[in-house]
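Task: encode each sequence below as structure tokens.

Item 1
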Amino acid sequence: MRLRPHAPSRRTRGGGGRRASVHGLILCLVGLLLGLFPVSAQAATLTEVTGFGSNPGNLQMFRYVPDGLPAGRPLVVALHGCTQSASGFDDETGWTKWADTWGFALLLPQQKSANNANSCFNWFQQSDFSRGQGEALSIKQMVDRMAADYGTDASRVYVTGLSAGGAMTAVMAAAYPDVFSGAAVVAGIPFDCARSTTEGLNCMSPGVDLTPQQWGDKVRAAYPSYAGPYPTMSVWHGSGDTTVKPMNMTELVEQWTNVHGTDTTADVSDTVQGYPHKVYRDGSGNDVVESYSITGMGHGQPVDPGSGATQCGVVGSYILDVNICASYYIGEFWGLAGGGGGSGSLPAPTGLTVTGTTDTSVSLSWSAVGGAASYRVYRGGTQVGTPTGTSFTDTGLSAGTTYSYTVAAVDGSGSAGAASAAVQATTSGAAHQCYTDNNYNQVVAGRAHQSMGYVYANGSNQYMGLYNVYETHTLEETSPGYYVVSDSGCPS
């Protein structure tokens, strides 16, 4: 079976027409993950949710929420592959196990065959991979619904996916870096590799070779006014993948190391469960990108069925037993395992204190832990640094924003102990201002301008529609005199 992009057949979306493809067999993304959803042993069940927004991408929303989950817990968004569904991507990949074990909510968007003949997310369609449009916006609206229903911790929202879902994961990380703290692409493709079905086929095989700067520029162009931190990125790929060629892992690493302002020379090269693993750190020592090359594995999601502490999954088509559970190690990279603690025996650090803030940084210090070889610093549950001393400065933050931090001590074997009590820090500077009004008044107020009867936001020059009092938009001032359309949520 082969994974191929398929031109969508949706007739209308958000008022715009779509023409069905006449090349369905050639342009499809082939079926992944053919197993059926087994009955869960947990009291919680996979449940469909309706009424989560305008849903311009015409997607379905499913969620798995452990019984009694308190407010303020993380959220993981998991995106299935082609011909599959939410129920074929929860237990099989292990994510429901970790939701129960670690205590987070799980959101599983589902594609419809009406949108794509093989139920593939349309990662190669600009109208679906752009911020504020199509399928990308529908997924963002699902995240908003989860926050409204369960009080999701906005600083601990993560996204992952396999194959076409992996390509869509890169879309969400690029289009909504203000929403996601971490991302994990399994057998996927860099953001904005393709803008047509033909280009999509070329991205999958043989792949597209761009410079790190070119790849990084594509991400930055997805949200040009954004100045905050980007999601950390975990990249997984089988070295024997003939459907999505392994060079896509290299290109993804190049794209996201460039976005994080670091190079493509790994700071850590080791093995995990016998497989090559690399970690890339930014100038502040933060682990920002990692990669796993699963030697000999074909196209699929790595699992390790069993009841062990690091095992997960149910074997099926494109769910491959290769003795490593990808979802476990992805969750560990994001800091979900034990809420930032680990299997080590070192006690939690005490005295965690905020020693200083600027518009874009937070400085911390804490008391030393005997026997600690290093420490892990977590921002909202996501690991952002591994200092050897008892202080750390987190950079690249947004002005006027509150962040939560914990620290765990790491012993000589690399095992992290219990996490410290959390502290909160608010960066200096003013938070972004939001203005909702009709287009006429936005122009009168100096936040937009009109040309030949059409209105555009000042600064970003984003199109807002006709110059009248009937069309309304929300504008966010991200810097003095620079406005962006933020109808999907403001401040972003």
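Item 2
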Amino acid sequence: MTSLPTNRAKTLKEAYRACDVKPLTGDDIARYYVDLSAVRNTVAIDDVSTDLDLQEPGEFNTILFTGHRGCGKSTELKRIQSRWENEYRVIYIEFDQELDVLDAEYTDLYLLVINKVADDLTELGLKFDQKLLHSFELWFKEVTKETEESVQLSASIETEASAGAEIPFISKLTAKLIGQIKGSSQQKQVIRETLQRNLSRLQADINLLLKDAFKKLRHKYPNRYQKGFLLIVDNLDRIPPNVGNHLFFDYAPQLQELDCTIIYTVPISVIYSYKNVSNLFSNPNIVPMVNIYEFNRSECDLNYNQQRLEGVARLIEQRVDISAVFDDRQRLLDLAKASGGHVRQLMQITRSTCRTAITRKHSKVLAEDVTYALNQQQFDFERSTPTPEYYTILARVCIDKDIDKEEIGQNLLFNLSVLEYNGSSRWNYVNPLVKQSYAFQQALRSIQGNP
């Protein structure tokens, strides 16, 4: 067991701040990262690196990376970025910061890709082949009815021209279109329909530019980036099930047409579809919950696996001096149990517990603070459960350890009422915060009393 950091939080206020739910980045990865490989199936994470390793220069791949929101995907993707930043020129994109997660189309992604690659080339002091670029820009002006003047006058674009670099028109135009797609439903529809009518030309020209960028990259950096661009599109897992199904099933070929390597984060609801996403992409890489249970398909109430429970608790111990902040270490284990092995949920309920203790003027977290904080999180789930019938479905999940592949099942996975665990077998279980609610217990008793 590795030693714990000496600068862990020692007060409730420090613990509250240390348990921020944001993905780890930069120095925080080294400070707070906990290797869960001993207690979580990490094949999905390893498989992504294997795929990137097996690729030869000039080969491109589309990789799906999925798991529940908050399970630790973004932190792992940041580590993948760091691991491969010499062999690939990595461009990390937070989709929800660029476009609307409630309404995403493949043409939006096309614009985003060429915009980010163009900006990256400018940052590196490289330029597209002028003949290719001029041809693309002329065509783009024609189909979008935009001009240099109209783009320049747009208030929606902010460029870094102050750095002295010449910003290509394609960067300015795509930035403007992306801004319009995010901000105006009427303009969004016009732009999408225009690009979809000219899809073959759009794909061909973007790929010509991507290949040219790859060539320029390898020429300038003979000892780096020899496998070209790697685009990591994070936070696409935040798109709702209906949007995810539309994007990854209806437009699977289009998402795989671009001549660069792309990792898409995918809503786990997409994986739970009778359409079978593996028929359209290579097998998705799924990051499961940390399985804190002793799996037994015939039991409704599962026992805990102490080693895995301690592994989850270590996520907090890495950040917080438990003896200084909690009156008893059992409080931490209670939080670990309530997390269901879900990383973000553990951070949320720990933070909420610290906040409760601060509000009540306690010097340390007490049992009553944990109970109150967990109840508040439970109430949030109750408010987001649409109808009482959903509890009957949740009770069946608890008994059967599986979830239906239709719309309701996808929604329950999306809102984290149901969690996935896998390893030697794949199974589902009800989120512990949902499981403790009265409505769920009533539905479970009803089913067990009437098999």
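Check on item 2: The longest helix spans residues 199-220. Residues 159-163 have pLDDT under 50 and may be disordered.
End of task.
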